[in-house]
Design brief:
The complex is a heterodimer of chains A (315) and B (344). Chain A has helices spanning 3-54, 71-77, 92-123, 127-138, 145-156, 161-169, 182-206, 210-218, 223-252, 255-260, 268-276, 282-314; strands at residues 57-58, 64-65, 78-80, 87-89. Chain A is mostly helical. In chain A, helix 9 (223-252) packs antiparallel against helix 12 (282-314). The longest helix of chain A is centred in the first third of the chain and has 52 residues, at 3-54. Chain A is globular and about 75 Å long. Chain B has 344 residues and is α/β, with parallel strands linked by helices. Chain B has 2 domains: 25-128 and 253-308, 3-Layer(aba) Sandwich (D-Maltodextrin-Binding Protein, domain 2), CATH 3.40.190.10; 130-252 and 315-343, D-Maltodextrin-Binding Protein, domain 2 (3-Layer(aba) Sandwich). Chain B is built from 13 helices and 12 strands. Chain B has helices at residues 2-23, 39-49, 61-70, 82-90, 149-152, 168-179, 188-202, 212-217, 228-237, 266-275, 279-289, 304-308, 329-343; strands at 26-33, 51-58, 77-78, 114-115, 118-119, 124-137, 162-164, 205-208, 223-227, 241-244, 251-259, 322-323. In chain B, the strands form 2 sheets. In chain B, strands 1, 2, 3, 6, 7, 8, 9, 10, 11 and 12 form a 10-stranded mixed β-sheet that branches. In chain B, strands 4-5 form a two-stranded antiparallel sheet. The chains are: A mainly alpha (315), B alpha/beta (344). Chains A and B meet through helix 3 and helix 11 of A and helix 3, helix 7, strand 8 and helix 13 of B.
Chain lengths: 315, 344
């Protein structure tokens, strides 16, 4: 007799279980919905428009006309010769992409070299002091990027603080031209994106068990060996995350090359902007934006796959 | 401290609620070039007609066109350059407001009435007009400045000290003039020569940027392609600057006030168009941005230094400014390729 309520209860339990499962699922979707909607509406939908536009023909005064065309993509690699109208391979746009990728890479490496010791320094401080250091790292974000970049410009220009002080000391007698060079853009990029490098590096290094470092020293490891075999493997996820976070915005940077580079050489971001402005070629602008995205995704995939393998080997 | 904030906050709220009914009479939304609209002019219009004006800015004709073409901007007034007026009329983006039948139309200088971009003025009225040439620091270079040679084959003291406008048409047109070729040129042989000239000259240019006043006054460059009003504003801070009238020629332009076809506040927009044709109001525009306007009698109300400024009053022997018409699409495509190669 005592078993009967159990038998009756079992299906009821199952039903209740299924109901609460369904409710949990529904709740999960409901909670996800704002994020999915935002990404769909403001991420995927514009991307689809960009894709469609890249296969249309440019309108005379901007916009597009609804005629299918792959010109935007052929234009990227080939150029109709101004002289005899033959299609010839052209490196103009590849050069622009190459320059942008090169600068973003160099800036990433620079940020890593500066950011790594910084993050290590913070991670090796007592926990109660770390927050102050982290706060100082994030402090620049309180001001708009445009204003910070402008401040850099004021410091390094011919009549800026550095040149004026150097001339007053008598070290130089003419201003030393720092502004409007690739070096200025490189410096501006490192400055803008350094916190993106330091923060993930710190997150990794913070978890490092410093007893491992001590143990390595006890086993007669040199300082370089400790760095290479203990610290860098532990920081690897942070290095990867930091490099990605600096490289990608660096590649698409618009303000920094425009202000500090003097606008003489196009970067990818400026090239794309130009197509929607005075060049009046929206399809080409769309195509260039998509090509940039594909390049970044491919680089990321290769990077993540290699990093994954390396991680397994070390694990 | 806390009390002060609270009082201030309450005062702000109070002023809002008090001000709202007074300002609610009408609205006008103006879309003009940045740093180009006299605040005094706007205040005067608001007071006179009890209209609340909002102002928004753009940095090129093309940016403005792209936005307006999408429609539904809510703007009433735009201030396109000459060739852009022509394009916008063709595209049906402007309202035919018939300024030529308005009360203050008789003030317009007759030479600006039958212009190629709006014959007889059925759509637009002058805002300001000026020239695009270049400014040189005569302390750095003391030779003859009235030649485009300074841009394309600069003397040693100006090499690496030059800013060009970041504008395809202004740079290519200057190159065409220097070589003596026609503007809106579709001749590929001649364009090839221009391309070579620009590529060769580029090594001597330090920057290509629109912010000419700042580039000159900060000492970043000693020569900059420039508009005459900007040249005057720069000279006020660096007196050794001089505006050149090159013998090879230079660009003339006029920005014009027009009303969008889908303007939500059509009546207020028409009031504004009539308002700025009054000489005392046109003078306010010029006193702020330092360009000439096209309204007779406005000189009386202008700042004294504007009447004698060498940037505004052209010397008698200067060439006539060249108002460049919009080029056919094939030519624009060629220009685009030259421009990309130049900056690639």
């Amino acid at each position: 007799m005592a078993a009967q309520p159990d038998i009756a209860a079992a299906p009821a339990d199952g039903l209740a279980q299924a109901q609460s499962d369904a409710r949990a699922r529904r709740r999960r979707w409901l909670l996800l919905a704002p994020a999915l909607l935002t990404i769909g509406l403001f991420g995927l939908f514009p991307l689809v428009i960009t894709l469609i536009y890249s296969f249309l023909s440019p309108g005379t005064y901007g916009g597009v006309t609804w005629e299918f065309s792959t010109n935007a993509y052929t234009q990227f690699l080939f150029e109709r010769d101004i002289f005899d109208d033959t299609l010839a391979f052209s490196t103009t746009y590849l050069n622009i992409f190459g320059r942008s990728i090169g600068l973003a890479l160099v800036a990433t490496i620079g940020a890593l070299i500066i950011g790594f010791p910084t993050a290590y320094f913070i991670a090796s401080k007592p926990p109660e002091q770390r927050n102050i250091w982290l706060f100082l790292i994030t402090l620049p974000f309180w001001t708009n990027l445009l204003i910070r970049t402008y401040a850099v410009l004021l410091i390094i220009r011919d009549e800026g603080i550095i040149n004026v002080s150097l001339m007053q000391i008598g070290l130089i007698d003419r201003p030393f031209g720092m502004l409007y060079t690739d070096g200025a853009v490189f410096m501006g990029l490192i400055y803008s994106y350094l916190p993106f490098m330091v923060l993930p590096l710190y997150a990794s290094l913070e978890k490092l068990d410093f007893r491992l470092v001590e143990a390595a020293y006890d086993l007669y490891a040199t300082r370089f060996q400790v760095l290479r075999r203990i610290i860098i493997p532990a920081a690897r996820p942070g290095i990867i995350a930091g490099c990605i976070l600096v490289f990608i915005p660096g590649l698409g940077a618009y303000i920094t090359p425009e202000l500090l580079g003097g606008g003489k050489k196009l970067m990818i971001g400026n090239l794309i902007a130009l197509q929607f402005g005075s060049s009046r070629n929206w399809p080409f602008g769309s195509a260039a934006a998509l090509i940039l995205m594909v390049v970044v995704m491919a680089a990321l995939l290769i990077y993540v796959r290699n990093a994954g393998k390396a991680g397994v080997r070390h694990g | 401290m806390k009390r002060t904030t609270l009082t201030l906050g309450m005062a702000a709220v109070a002023s809002f609620t008090l001000a709202a009914p007074v300002l609610a009479e009408g609205k006008l939304n103006i879309y003009n070039w940045g740093n180009y609209t006299s605040p005094e002019l706007i205040e005067k219009f608001e007071a006179e007609y009890d209209v609340e004006v909002t102002l928004d800015g753009y940095d090129s004709n093309e940016t403005m066109l792209a936005k307006v073409k999408e429609g539904g901007t809510g703007y009433d007034i735009v201030v396109p350059g000459d060739y852009m007026i022509k394009i916008m009329i063709q595209e049906g983006l402007l309202a035919e407001i018939k300024p030529n039948e308005m009360e203050n139309f008789s003030n317009m200088d007759p030479k600006w009435v039958d212009v190629w971009w709006d014959e007889g003025r059925n759509y637009s009225v002058p805002w300001q007009w000026g020239t695009t040439s270049f400014t040189v620091d005569t302390e750095v270079y003391d030779g003859d400045i009235n030649t485009l040679k300074l841009l394309f084959e600069p003397p040693a003291e100006l090499q690496g000290r030059i800013n060009m406008l970041n504008d395809m048409n202004d740079v290519i047109n200057a190159g065409l003039r220097y070589l003596g070729y026609e503007r809106c040129n579709g001749n590929v042989e001649e364009l090839k020569e221009v391309t070579d000239l620009l590529l060769e000259a580029k090594q001597h240019w330090r920057t290509m940027d629109y912010s000419t006043i700042e580039k000159l006054t900060s000492g970043d460059v000693d020569l900059s392609q420039n508009w005459n009003g900007a040249a005057m504003r720069a000279r006020e801070q660096r007196p050794t600057l001089q505006y050149a009238y090159p013998v090879e020629g230079f660009t003339g332009w006029m920005d014009n006030v027009a009303v969008l076809a889908d303007a939500p506040n059509m009546d207020n927009a028409k009031l504004f168009v009539n308002f700025i044709m009054a000489p005392e109001n046109a003078a306010l525009i010029s006193n702020f941005a330092r360009y000439a306007n096209g309204i007779k009698g406005s000189e009386e109300f202008m700042d004294a230094e504007m009447l004698t400024a060498p940037e505004i009053v052209m010397p008698a022997d200067a060439p006539t400014p060249d108002f460049v018409k919009p080029c056919p699409q094939e030519t624009v495509d060629l220009y685009n390729r030259i421009w990309t190669r130049l900056k690639g």
